[in-house]
Amino acid sequence: MTEQFVVGIVRGTHGVSGEFKVESTSGEYDHFYHMDEVTITDGTNSRLVKIESVKEGNNVLYMKLAGINSPEDAAKFNRWEIVVPREKAHKLQKDEWYIEDLKGSSVWYKDTAGDTAPALDDNSVVGTVTNVLEGGSGYLVEIKLSESCRLLGDDIKFNRKGKVNTVYVPFKDEFIGKINIEEKTMQLMHLWILE
Fold this sequence. Notes:
- By secondary structure, the chain is mostly beta strands.
- It is 7% helix and 42% strand.
- It contains 3 helices and 12 strands; from the N terminus they run E-E-E-E-E-H-E-H-E-E-E-H-E-E-E.
- The protein has a 6-stranded antiparallel barrel.
- It is elongated and about 60 Å long.
């Protein structure tokens, strides 16, 4: 199966012909002009739909899809995601990553100034990236903590019910260091951010 990426989110209707307002997840819009069809999904239901037109307006993209011909039809898809194969997604620039590529990465910490990841073991891996979410002032890396990491105390690793904690770390240079997509690793700059 082809890898699929969320490239946009339906943010409402526009006009009387069934156009959507679309927010680009990358902030870029040029790649939408090279698409013939997209999948729209709410996470449970999906539809492969032909694109009839795409045009830009005030920091939003207007998209008309085949078979959606009124504001009432378009309103049914509010907040649905627009998904395409990797080759149709926005081309990455330096220091950009697809969220799907970050998921499953081992998050490691080493208490030295070294640039390279240590041999990943139970002591250096503090958790695993499960998602990257939009927060109020930027993106947050969702990390499920490792039960076996000896760098973290049980009060950090486990909640009151004994379940492994999930934490959210700002996706900013001061908290996230080196990222290696090929090796699926992400460096954590400070342990205190997990508390």
